[in-house]
Input
Amino acid sequence: MIRLSHHLTDPLIRSNPVTLQILGICSALAVTTALATALTMAAALIFVLCASAAIISAIRRHIPHAIRLILQITIIATLVIVTDEVLRAYAFEISQRLSIFVGLIVTNCIVLGRAEGFAMHHPVGPSILDALGNALGYGLVLVIVATIRELFGTGRLLGIPMLPLAEQGGWFEPLRLMQLAPSAFFIIGLMIWAIRTARPEQVERPEHRLLSRQGEARP
Amino acid sequence: MMEILLASILTDNLALSFFLGICTFLAVSQRISTALGLGIAVIVVQGVTVPVNALIHTFLLAPGALHWAGLPEIDLSFLRIIVFIGVIAAMVQLMELLLDRFVPALHRALGVFLPLITVNCAILGGSLFMVERRYDPLEAVVWGIGSGIGWALAITAFAAIRERLRHADMPEGLRGLGGAFIVTGLMSLGFSGFGGLVP
Output
């Protein structure tokens, strides 16, 4: 079990798909203006990722090598359509707010990446754990960004007032910038900075050494 | 028309205000020349796939679209995600073949980027936005080309900034990816300044 559980825990922070491998952030950021949409999106991705990993891993010995990508995309797209239709049927208002971004799970690099990189070569059990870990790692980033953006952008969380607004006699002045696109980029950038400061082995090697810092002349 | 064009290039920029195609945006922006090549490939693919998808949506998938076949009550719009992905993959393949046959020089320049584009969310996103905003086929042509130009503009400018930043003395944790996000945020902030252009 210990051997298996690292499939689940590794992608949460250490090799988080969003902050380390820049996978899947396309859709991740646009839905983070409110916590409710981010949670829905994370749930949708968890379902699609786990189900596609399970199906692809189960039939991996029968997939001809030449058409594997088409097959994987077809399976993923089918699952995404099911998710989209279920959301539309049971949570219409939130599916309107998610707009096209549930559909874009099809092109989410995490899903295809895990299918091609892991589920194709491993049995069903580890594949599902690996998919769940990656989906949770993605969900974690989404929820953190959405919490910051909704809390400081509107003073609410999940629509419930948290900070007393200045216009209602409190002290909190909503930061309009938090509801705009740039803030999501800033928050992710700062998160990467924080993770890499805590784990210096992830820092990228510089392409050029700065001579002044080395204190030695060019050879 | 002019409004759609301006909006798609500047204010509704796919990369900077809808976060579409950001994976590729960050990965392939080390040099201006490659960024420009990818940008041109996106313009071409987007300009072809969005109108084709618009025609397919209007005449096959939209509710009541099969009226011409005597089946007015059929609504196939739930199929659009899978159909659009198929169309995009097929168009990219077709373009690769045509370019290889007739314009080999361009094929050599764009060759490596074309397969990448199939899974670029900006392309699928462009088609899905076209449906959601109910553009007619003519507007779809403008939206497709415009949003492609917007994406190309963003990635070229970003690559230019990154080339300069290569020599900057950044804190270790910000080097590379972290810094790239902050710069993209600043660019996005700049582009939101165009907001007043489109009523």
